[in-house]
């Protein structure tokens, strides 16, 4: 079938994106957008060849319909060596991790495939200029995020974890935060939060952790009082 | 035959040479050595000088006229200190590949011809062309389309486009053609289901961004879907994209990289009438493309009716002209009328503080004494010769023509009229002297002339009062800020001018920033009605435009802009326009090989277009042009295309890539506005000299890398040397400083506003001292750039600039630094894109800055990068020798000389005869003294031939050797040193070639890469060498310039400041005003001032004071009297010393009493008392007994004014 008919290719700065043109129901799309079943392809030849991403999609689509490929390039269009691949059917992931390297190898492309970490959280440290609520409001002006977790690791010293929909969004946010980082003080520092970190989404199981309502009030102040505004 | 040659031919040739324009000539090497002697003898007899030089291994004779600046009377000595020798030897023993033969080395680099395919690709090829999917139009979209003035003509336009491949469409800016035409084409193709991909080409990056966002908004999408964008460092295109915005420069760059016009159906080129150089080159490419792509359709959009030029150039196509001159009601005032209008209106500008400042204490400098002597001598002698020193000081030393004698207050023009010398009087008046200035006896030039009764003098003065020969604004060089402020007062305070938005067009960004401060200070002191100020310029971020568009419609908007406004379709109606009518044009002057930034009046057509920016439907729209009617009448109708006057370095380089098999001059000759051949010839020669082109006019690897770096080629070369010597950071600062305005430039009298122009000499001296302080005896103006930037950065302590105002200099500095930062980060990204900076390995940012804190190395890098801009001091002849045959002078701006200091005095201090320079015309604006070794190592061609070295005397025992680095740099050194230097040069330039050729190969530059760890080794050893050389020559130890990792500051300082002080915010804050929609007029506002005593500094006070504290000391007193029409101000006061440190506005926001700081400075109480006395206001007592107290409104107002109109250089202690 015509590649162009099936896929939509776009370039936005350092990302080449090949996306399906299929219509997806809203829930499925949202699920895929949040990085469900994402694969991480590495060891891609560092060449400036537009046909490689196309070829990857063509080969990978033998296992099932592709949702999207995000292929990273540098300023001069040379591949940075890695890419992200997603199937529409997220359950294909396991099979793909096994089979895809072989398929690639047969086509003379030695590309490694593994499950993507889907790192989508950023950690902001040493931002002493603002209180957590101010920080929440300020950061919404910089870049939209899906949630903010605040840890008070020492009295009046906070660690902020910003969560984004997916890795792509987080990467954009990382860039825009770095551009305005001085707003948060002279030592403020933003970094990726690795999913294995104790602060990350998965390991976040605090008993007294509470979610604030829209007016920044504690829903149940009696439950815990370790965090004051 | 021999006899004839020797007796007749040679003398004849020499006579021809004497009669010709050239200052020196090399006689061909075909002469035999016997004939060399004849040439030498003969030229000596004719009073010429001669020298035997080596050229391509053969000796030939060069003959110089006496005035030739290429002839060094004797070679400059080069000796090396023993630590340097040791270090160089160690370096040589460690560097590999030294043994490689010269021949082999040459072969490796010269056999390959570089073409476009060697350039890094900048974007992926465009996706295949396809028809657009038909889409349903919403009501809003239909309305939007219908709102275009050209909507009725859609059918005609499309018909023309089907009939012709080229359509020139002329219409005013308000037609918004760059949106309308692409949408029209896309619509048509949707209906016809034909393939379409439209490239829209704009002049500036920011316009392309702005238009693409507007169009994406129309489709209700993000950029990157139907509408794409392709710009350096920002591109977003997909397979469904049908309209792509870009700039001419970028399109040409991708054409140079080997892309062609495939997959494009339409090209829409905007603003062709402006003849932007890149657009002009693009038109040539398009003309060629029409031959190969028969289906390409080109639409040229212009705002000027004369389209014949384009049709004639393309030899086909048709024109659609809609530039009928509208019947405008706009009133246009020229300068004469503006002056009388202001004089009649009687503007009140608040109290005249600072008027009574005694001048005496400001006028005791050495320069004043010298000038006084000049005037005295003139008064006593009165001859032509006696006025000459004074005229010299005006012309070359920036002394104001109205200089007043520090004792008797006489000006030169007054003395001339006293002496009855009409010629001098006329001359001085022509130079801009003001005859109305009075001396101590209350006499002025006119009254004196009348009393003497000399008719000629009286006539000259009468003539002056009628025409005013040269007043400040009769020249395009200076913008009269005072007049603009006066007009603003006229527009905003006089009832006959109804409120409306004001557009102010200024020549450059620097002017905008300066005016911005003046407007702010007049606003904040309450003299002017509060307004919102917006800025537009070429290098702004999109946020600046967004802020203007999103601003509330019921505010008075004042937009300060450069000429970019002519191509920026804004939906903001302007009622008034103040047009400075001048612009800055970079010029290349082929007669003395110089670049000059010249201010010129804009052409008539340009003024006419600007006039149309004013909303013609508004009843009494008014256009103020700061140009005399007579000057306007003599302007040309159209402006000269920049291609014909500019410095063509980047253009030549680009052209070479576009058409590698053509000679550059030939290509440019066939463009729509061909530049003069002599300019092209000169530039090509310069490019050859700096190794951007090789001797056969092919591009070198350096040229290949420079194409992607958006700086002039010379500065690009400087960056490469910065990379090679691992001191990129200071070099980046220097390069970006050279590209932006200099905040520490010594101002002319005309640059200083009327409040302070009496103190011109004082201010100039202060700035000169500041420059000397920053230069710290390093004899370098480039060092000042680095220090200034670092001091500014460390003052901020890594924060964004604070929002309160201090004084004009501080504000302008912040504004200029914002721009500088912007340029810096743009250069860094382009270096990354050109692969000269990698993210890791030897070429990572950290590694390239290992030597950044070492000024010795930076100087060495400057030498290499700035070559051939090198001068040599000739003490004997008392002048500077350089590659330019015309003479060059040190501008008073440089730290190398003091005001009024003769050259031989300043030259005594230089530690070395070699000076690097940046010049404007024949003035050296910025200079750095460097050691001879740096010149010997880095100047000249990348490959020195052995033939450029010759023994001084072949039979003598002292083995001293001459080395001719280029056609005039001539040094003598010992034989062993020469060999060492040649070896070092060879290995350095090998590294240079390696870097430029292989920088795309990241593997090669890994830290652990086995082949070359030489980069760090080379830089490290050279650092030691230059350090010992500098010390040996006698340079003082430079103050530390600490390299700190590059901090990216948000480039929105000016936007934030203006938003902070605009009254939009104030409305949001106070609900009472919300309910009253009528325009708010601050003239009904009453101001109350509180004095608050504090022991802390302002910084600490604002950081530490809590709201309860403020409430306690102020809130409870101030709150009852606060109302929307009564503003409360708080003046911070501190004791020992008694000073006022800050003024802020207090306001109740959400029930909490808060302070918003307006000004911060340090003003002694005695100054306030003096001001009060001079303005007859009751003198207050500031004893600090009370924590806070209410003070007299008038005193408060005076303090506020003292803060707002303070002058940095006069008041800084």
Structure summarized in a few sentences:
With 229 residues, chain A is α+β, with helices and mostly antiparallel strands.
Instruction: Give the spatial strand order of the biggest sheet of chain A.
Output: 1-2-4-5-3-6
Poorly predicted residue ranges of chain A: none
How many domains in all of chain A?
2
- The run of helices and strands of chain A is HEEHEHEEHEEHEEHE
Q: Biggest β-sheet of chain B, characterized? A: 8 strands, mixed
Largest interface: A-B, 25 and 33 residues
Amount of helix of chain B = 40-55%
Number of helices of chain B: 46
Strand order of the largest sheet of chain B: 8-7-9-6-10-11-5-12
- Assign the structural class of chain B, choosing from mainly alpha, mainly beta, alpha/beta, alpha+beta, or little secondary structure: alpha/beta
Could you characterize the architecture of this molecule?
The complex is a heterodimer of chains A (229) and B (1213). With 229 residues, chain A is of the alpha+beta class. Chain A folds into two domains: 3-115, Alpha-Beta Plaits (2-Layer Sandwich), CATH 3.30.70.330; 121-228, Alpha-Beta Plaits (2-Layer Sandwich). Chain A is built from six helices and ten strands. By secondary structure, chain B is an alpha/beta fold. Chain B contains 46 helices and 33 strands. In chain B, the strands form seven sheets. An eight-stranded mixed β-sheet of chain B has the order 8-7-9-6-10-11-5-12, with helices on both faces. In chain B, a hairpin with an 8-residue loop joins strand 26 (949-951) and strand 27. Chain B starts with a helix and ends with a helix. Residues 1067-1080 of chain B have low confidence and may be disordered. Strand 1 of chain A pairs antiparallel with strand 8 (234-238) of chain B. Chain A: One of its GO terms (cellular component) is cytoplasm.
